[in-house]
Amino acid sequence: MKLSSLIKIGGVGLLSAVVLAGCGSKSSQSGAKKQTANWMVNANINTMDVSKMTDLISSQNVNATNEGLLRMTKNNAVIPGVAKNYTVSKDGKTWTFNLRQSKWNDGKPVTAKDFVYSWQRTVNPKTASQYSYIFSNIQNANKIIAGKLAPTKLGVKADGNYKLVVHLVKPQSYFKYMVSQSYYFPEEISMVQKYGSSYGTDANKIGFNGPFVLKGWNGTNDTWKLVKNAKYWNAKNIKLDTLNMQAVKDPATALNSYNSGKLDFTTLSGTQVKNYKNSKNYHVYKQASIYYLEMNEKKFPMFKNRNIRKAFSLAIDKQQLVNKVLADGSQAPKGFVADDMSKRNGKDFADQSYVKSAVAYNLAEAKKYWAKGLKETGKKSVNLTLLSDDTDIAKRTTEFVQSQLTKLPGVKITNQNVPYKTRLSRSASGQFDLVITAWNAD
């Protein structure tokens, strides 16, 4: 994705900056306490296929139900996962992971071969994974992705069932963080082979090796469960028995469910934030997310023009968007890096990479750049469709962006708010003029 085709419009935690969180615990008829919680998200799962997953909701559920070699915890610490330990060669290019004897939820062993298979499947061009580039520092990955080598040539091999050896192109000290991410998770070979193209499209067509097992998701429904996985190697330390998940698009509906005890957690939006600021259950959680406007340069070559892009960027008042329209704790961004995401020597990288003019608002300047851009591209006007989700927040965002951009002479914007899954699909296939989407730090 070209950074030149993006305009930053929202900052940290656009969708879940402030929440109300209680704690649900119910008892069974026998008297034994069952730890349950009722949780909400703003959209349903798109896919559980590790090789094809790209969105936040899917990633959250995959992380809850599966596990990679290592697991990342607080303060960027990495702890053992499927791998009980690992070693790195003196030149930093060979990593050897020693796996524990863990199991999939069906009782079959999780082996090094499951990791090899998963990684090879992701870099295979036939899989069309949008995250295949994440493997680029593993030997031969780039040639495989380009279709010049067979996936079996990837620099990873299983030395028996419980030893995985990875060969890197160059030393990568942060590779330990990479393998903790969901893209590097194993895939149960028998499940992929059994279900083929339908693998990961519902709860019964995928294997789970993590803390929870996904139940009740048929691929399209808005409710599902995460149930404790008895086969998980560390099950004794998992205290929660069931997490009842519900996708709720409308903040008012979600808040009503929370107040009536049907939800133990809900995100707040707009005036809801003001009304609940003094509640003991009110919490602010920052997410390392940047929301942006992507322009389809292939469909509209005019977006390759620097002045056109600058005009669009300067025409959007980011402060007004986060303070008046969203009013949910979101922040106007300083650039492509979210606040408090990464620090070096105690300094926030978002501050060090801040270029004020890149995220400024100046309608007068925007009109000047717009006029220049129209002259250079030979255009007099443009009629565009703005694509986004059909949630309440997304609708308010598109309405605001529409009102801002149409202040440029000759610009007509038609909003198109569609279900989350549809937006993801259209974004990936290039079926949009403009689309509001997000980048979330892994």
From TrEMBL:
<keyword id="KW-0732">Signal</keyword>
<dbReference type="InterPro" id="IPR039424">
    <property type="entry name" value="SBP_5"/>
</dbReference>
<protein>
    <submittedName>
        <fullName>Peptide ABC transporter substrate-binding protein</fullName>
    </submittedName>
</protein>
<dbReference type="InterPro" id="IPR030678">
    <property type="entry name" value="Peptide/Ni-bd"/>
</dbReference>
<feature type="domain" description="Solute-binding protein family 5">
    <location>
        <begin position="78"/>
        <end position="442"/>
    </location>
</feature>
<dbReference type="InterPro" id="IPR000914">
    <property type="entry name" value="SBP_5_dom"/>
</dbReference>
<keyword id="KW-0813">Transport</keyword>
<feature type="signal peptide">
    <location>
        <begin position="1"/>
        <end position="21"/>
    </location>
</feature>
<dbReference type="Pfam" id="PF00496">
    <property type="entry name" value="SBP_bac_5"/>
</dbReference>
<comment type="similarity">
    <text>Belongs to the bacterial solute-binding protein 5 family.</text>
</comment>
